[in-house]
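EI: anyone free to look at a 660-residue chain?
SC: sure, send it
EI:
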Amino acid sequence: MKKSLLKILVITLFITGTVFGQQYILKWANYDVIDRANDVTRGLVYNPYSDHVLVATRFGGNRVVKLDPETGYIIGMLDTTDTGFEGGTYPLNLVDIADDGTIYVCNLSVPSNDPNDRFRIYRYTDESAAPELVFDDALDGNRYGDSFAVEGKGDNTWFYTSGYQNDKMAVLKIGTRGIALDHYIELPSINSARHGISPVSPGGNLWINGAGDSYPPVRLISNDGNIIATVPDSIIAAGGTGTVHHVNLGSFNLVFAVNVFLTNAVRAGRYYEDELGTITFDYFGDNSDSLMLGYQGNELVNNQNGSSALSYDSTRHVLYALNGVNSVAALDLNGLLRIATPRDQGAATIQIDGKKKEYFHYDHVGTSQDRDLYLTWGSNAVYFGITGHTLQDATLQNQLFLAFDLDPDGDGGSSVPPSDAGGVSALPFKADVVVHLEPWDNFDYTTGWVYTWNGSEWVVGSSIDGFDIGYGAMAWVGGETDTTLTEVAVAFNSAGLGEDFTNIRMMTYSAEAGSDGAILCAFPDVNPTETGAAFTAYYEADSLGSGMYAANPEDLRIVNTGVGIQPGTSLPSTAILHKNYPNPFNPKTVIPFTLREKARVELKIFDLRGQEVHTLADEVLEAGTYTRILNGEGLASGVYFYQLRVNHTAISTQKMVYLK
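SC: here you go
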């Protein structure tokens, strides 16, 4: 095909507008762990390993309470019987979680008032474990435990704490002899990290916030205390704030704080960092309704201590907010920044420009041969983003194929691909449309064909030549100066997928040209990647409607028609086996599953040889969503499979990777 030599201007499919709604949306509020007369509830963190919200409170005794993230209801407590959390001005104060799922709880200590008062940290290996006292020291005699943060995992776990009237932050680290003091950070001012510390990376920069006799602004500091950036009061800290939490979502870098002294409202600021490392800020969103965070939803209790906590839930796009004597609340952030699909308007618009910044955690659906696939859609197109040098190929050998079955319940289409690229022998369904993109030796748009099945053979419905969605599809290949990414938009028009489909099946692969060419990647990632492969797995959605997340198995299922220990979902109407997280993992990972009715459930782990290595569940359960935790200690690094059986029938098998 002749390539266009004209310089094509980068054009976005849709015009980027403003943020959606600019409001936080209250999902639930809990007052059962709040004492409006005493500031005894100060610590909160979301635990992705158990899918629980953990709240540290002294209301009703020293407790770490587990809340259901969907409802806010109390569903249990961590074990506190062995230690009793003894010692300190407050024996139990704050809770946080490391990147490997280890839970840490600290007290609040004031050795200046009592020489025997020591700062203590307790460790839970998981929510079912008993706590262990792992740090017990008076430090330098100042007050510690008003703020507490944990970052990293294993031997690279860091701990940060400060307190009222303290101009220092103690930095601790796990070493060969356990947790030990690493150094002190001289803070920019007294109390400036009293309420909140939000580490950017283990041993790296830190967001800090706090107040005392004055109201210092939210700041970003280095690990040695140098100020990197200061958030203007007008954006986030008007009237003084407590706690701080930063979240990175695609190209959106957000920092949150709670206005505990005036309105009990959450505020957010957006920050930008240029090539020189200079950080600038802009207002983002608006105050939440202060009644949302008030006591019983209508009483604003004065919180003189300013105690508060924030934690982000990346499975629901929710911010959990604790406001000491007022409430624990779950705030849906889609009113502030909508990242569910379709994403074809507003601040999170997908742009076909070869950059990864528009994609979020919720768009990531798989990894194959060191390439990641991001999938989302708007009202006019479905978008695929594949990392790596997928089409950036000076040899012009790499080919990219996207296959679609637009009538899964019908007999139309063909399981034989319209090209022998990579020697692929079969698609996993009877495809109606296949988009074939050829490589390009520049970091630019690409060319190709849209094949349609006419009932007896594949025909070229349209040729792709340049950056024009009117061809039915278009692609952009990112360059070395940015994230290398092949982005493809396949249109809902007559030249592309058409407009008359509801259910849809999809898969994509990249391969070298020729019948013996190597398969470079295949998605879903459980498909084989050897020459001559017959693909068996695909993505399936009942629709490509609004409010959906591509990574959510209830919105986009992985179906595998293969046999044996192979990942996939074969009977989604009976039960759903969700993707484990994190994946890869070390040493623990969470495996969620959903039952639609009461049934006997078996959840088992297999190695690559098909040998069973663990049984995580073998019991009768009521309908609902459950999680089980796999501890990989004792296992070798490598690929494992987890299989869900319901009433002795295999429902689904998924793949995970254990990396020590």
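EI: The CA atoms of residues 272 and 280 lie 5 Å apart.
SC: 👍
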